[in-house]
Specification:
Number of strands: 6
Strand content: 15-25%
Shape: extended
Length: about 325
């Protein structure tokens, strides 16, 4: 490349961001703070951090297992699906009560394919109980056991096309990061309002003390007010757009603590009792491997891609509607 070409390149306008990156900038303004978009250096400072976060979200969604068929047959044949639900009827209840599934089935797009895909999520739970267990040739009663079960089963972003579901999940992953940062901003705002109230009360108290005999109390409250004012200025400065952009950039470059998948493995029998044995030791024991997602609320959720037959979902929705109608009549 000639020197003239190199100099010419310096004066070329910066190419516009890709549609994906442009959408990410819009989500920052929408979910974090609309004022950020008007701040100097908004796109320049956040371009690389957002590209890093988008790549991280892509990798996170690509690491999801599945799709796993979720139906009555899978409840009988798939140890993981069997562990996820207490009974096969619970699968129908989940499908029928899911507002996301109801909304999806009400759209014409649900007829594009006989199957649809979604992200399945559930919370892992454990409880202790006394039960029967075989030790050698003996059956013992009242043996302490740890039972694995799941709650809050839900389906997210149902769609007939798997790639469309994955794309929506990638967008949700970025939104989760941005909402987590927004929570941090809201905490700062609440702290600022609290400091303003405390400082106002302290000034009113000092006004009262000024009319009395000066003493140690006046000096103590004066120092306290100075400390409140200093903390208030610091908090207000952190809420300035330029500081928020810097903090957001650092946050997006290290998203792992706020959004991550953690592998989990456990050996259980058909009743969900956790076992030290493996399938090699006992044919009734199965090893379940699945990732758990940590997001905004910090609670762990088992996650996997799921595949569901549309007609089975329609039947489940109608069944639950009929149950609800009967309950209302009673």
């Amino acid at each position: 490349m000639s020197l003239f070409s190199s100099v010419t390149d310096l004066f070329k306008p910066t190419p516009p961001p890709s549609p994906m990156l442009s959408h990410a900038f819009d989500r920052v303004a929408e979910l974090v703070n609309p004022m950020l978009k008007a701040a100097p250096g908004f796109q320049h400072r956040l371009q690389l951090p957002l590209e890093h976060a988008l790549g991280y979200c892509d990798g996170l969604i690509a690491a999801l297992p599945g799709p796993v068929d979720i139906n009555r047959q899978a409840f009988s044949n798939d140890p993981l699906v069997h562990a996820l639900f207490a009974t096969a009827d619970d699968i129908d209840q989940m499908l029928g009560r899911s507002q996301a599934i109801r909304d999806f089935l009400a759209e014409p797009a649900c007829w594009e394919n006989e199957y649809f895909y979604a992200l399945f999520a559930a919370r892992r739970q454990q409880k202790k109980q006394l039960g029967m267990a075989q030790q050698g040739d003996m059956i013992q009663n009242d043996v302490p056991q740890l039972v694995l079960y799941f709650s809050d089963q839900t389906l997210i972003e149902p769609c007939c096309q798997l790639e469309t579901t994955l794309e929506k999940l990638r967008q949700r992953a970025l939104d989760s990061l941005l909402r987590t940062f927004h929570d941090h901003v809201e905490t700062l705002r609440q702290e600022r309002e609290g400091l303003r109230a405390d400082a106002s009360a302290e000034r009113a108290h000092l006004t009262i003390l000024q009319g009395t005999t000066p003493g140690n109390a006046y000096e103590v409250h004066t120092r306290h007010l100075a400390d409140l004012d200093a903390r208030l200025r610091q908090t207000a400065e952190l809420l300035m757009p330029e500081h928020l952009i810097e903090a957001l950039a650092d946050f997006l470059l290290a998203p792992e603590p706020s959004l991550k998948l953690t592998p989990y493995s456990v050996n259980v029998d058909r009743l969900g009792v956790v076992s030290d044995k493996t399938a090699d030791d006992d044919l009734s024991v199965h090893t379940l491997n699945f990732p758990e997602l940590t997001a905004r609320d910090k609670r762990l959720h088992l996650v996997t891609l799921a595949r569901i037959h549309r007609d089975e979902a329609l039947e489940a929705v109608e069944m639950v509607r009929d149950q609800q109608h009967r309950f209302m009549l009673i």
